[in-house]
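subagent[fold] <- orchestrator: predict structure for attached chain, return tokens only, no commentary.
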Amino acid sequence: MLVKNWMSKNVITVDVNSSMQDAMKLLKEHGIRMLPVMKKGKLVGIITDRDLKKASASDATTLEVHELLYLLTKIKVKDIMTKDVVTVPPEFTAEETAQVLMRNKISGAPVVDANGQIVGAITQADIFRVLISLTGVGTGGIQFGCQVEDRPGSIKEVADVIRRYGGRMVSILSSYDEVPEGYRKVYIRMRSIERSKLQNLIQELESKTGLLYMVDHTENIRQIFVEKINNAPN
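subagent[fold] -> orchestrator:
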């Protein structure tokens, strides 16, 4: 899940000497929220829709409409852009990029190669696409959330139970967040499970693992196993 495989390669940029009005027009025309700012082919800053709204709002209260429109044509991108640009390399993974965006509280970043050239842009929307692809939620199926012992083979044991009911594996995700020592959470998405056998499968999973929930995305059925969560080993 590398950035270079998920980024937008057709990057819309704006010149450092362009006006606020030009930048606003580009954002609207292309339905984007940020613009890398260029000077003689080099990245020198970034401007977002938030920057533009903030800059225009600060003067709007004391100006007439025609004065505001005139102001938008006179204020340059270089006057309001962010000069310390947060970038990511194309070899970053999607999760590394998500950390960068969250840490810096930004909605996206230019993708810059080893030569300092912009080769793309990655946004929160792209990260969402990665998440959807990684989990397989777009294909429907059933997801089981379980708490299992953190030992070799524990995930396979759960998956084998589901396979016996005809399930075909779509994705397996695992996490150590908010679990007791010696345990881990596992999220398994399967397809092709016969609905007539589903309750028997749930009962078997409950007896052999800490079943947390079951979500049937095809039939939009959700079961939360609260007792299993509350009675999880400490």
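orchestrator: received. Logging for downstream: The CA atoms of residues 94 and 128 lie 10 Å apart. Residues 227-234 have pLDDT under 50 and may be disordered.
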